[in-house]
Amino acid sequence: MKIYKRIIAATGLCLLLAACNFFSKNEKNTPRDYDILDKDDIGEYVEDIDGLSDPVYIAGEPRIVRPDIVDGKGNIDIYKYASQDVQVEIEPMGYNTLTARISSQDPQANLRFGFLILPDNTMEEPFDRELTYQLPGDGIYKLIVTDYYAGEGEPWSGYFTLAFELE
After folding, report:
1. Phi, psi (deg, nearest 5) at residue 16
2. What is the sign of the dihedral through the CA atoms of 123, 129, 132 and 137?
3. Going by C-beta distance under 8 Å and a sequence separation of 6 or more, which residues neighbour residue 162?
4. Total-model pTM
5. Mean pLDDT computed over 44-63
6. CB-based burial of residue 30 (10 Å sphere; 0-12 exposed, 13-18 middle, 19+ buried)?
């Protein structure tokens, strides 16, 4: 009877060690899921891509990115997976107008601003790769970047840049 207890205990210990090793490797090799991605959280996942600013945010689930705002301006490079929507949150803090633009070095990047979600959770839609919007007040505005199929496009994955200015 004692031998069975030892076998069960040894098996449990082996499974525990294997699980710890799996999660340790997984955290180092794949993007993690974040509620909000910021520079401190993802420094180890920054990609060195020619022509893109640092850092490159890798949108995980639930795909929320909050860029830094300096003097009313921001510029962020983001990696998205195919068919993935990316939510970029901007808090204007006293500014009245938001101007934003999506660009990519990949000519196949079929992206657009699908929605702008206002602080009261109402939505404005759709937009193209550029938008200018009069902000009705303070709060968090959510820019939703989506694939744009236009009847024949394909889901796209890759790097894109979102630049914005608040006035």
Report:
1. -65, -45
2. positive
3. 67, 74, 75, 76, 78, 88, 100, 101, 102, 143, 145
4. 0.66
5. 51
6. exposed
